[in-house]
Structures are given as C-alpha cells and as structure tokens.
Amino acid sequence: QVQLVESGGGLVQAGGSLRLSCAASGRTFRSYAVGWFRQAPGKEREFVSFISWSGGSTYYSDSVKGRFTISRDNAKNTVYLQMNGLKAEDTAVYYCAAGSIGLRPHDYDFWGQGTQVTVSS
Q1: Where are the alpha helices (DSSP H) in 23-115?
Q2: Phi, psi dihedrals of residue 31, rounded to the nearest 5°
Q3: First-to-final CA distance of the chain
C-alpha cells in the first residue's frame, strides 16, 4: 500500500514560484515512478512531469518544460515539483501519483488528494 499527500500549493502572482511536495508512506514506495498531473475546471487531467523510481529519468510536458523541475529524495520518501515563472494558465489542482512510468493517468496506481495552485495575473 502507498499513501500520498501533497502540500505546498497556494496563491501566487504571475512570475512567482512555488514548490510542491508529495510525501509518501508505505514500504514499497521506492519501487514506483512518480508523476505530477494537474486538472483545471472543465478540463481533462493533464500530465505535467514524471520521475523514475531511481530519480535517473525525468520528463516534462511542453507547457512546463524549462520552468518546472521534478526531483525525489527516497530517504525522505518525498517527491518535489519546483515551479518557477508561473503563469495564469498553470492554475489547477495538482496531483502526485505513483505507479508505472508514463504520461497517462491510467499508468498510475496510487493518487494523492491534490493541492490547489492559483496564479493571479
């Protein structure tokens, strides 16, 4: 069993930064890749980034590449998403998920509750 809890969301002005955290519990957490997704009202859940179980492989959607950075600290059972240069279109609920590496929600088995990120213009 894996349980995930996101934190770090909030309200920020355009151009600002936030760091999201995904804290995991469960002894099998280190066996999973972790992805970040986001969902705005009326839109499909959208892939943002993933990181492999070892941290050796990362990938970003075109919309965030160059602005966001994903990392993980397995000793702390935590994955981070550093978000810089935030734009109004980044406003969404952000979710972390654990599972097989991939770009689709169906690739992931466990999900956190989400954390709201709101970017004002």
Answers
A1: none
A2: -85, -5
A3: 40
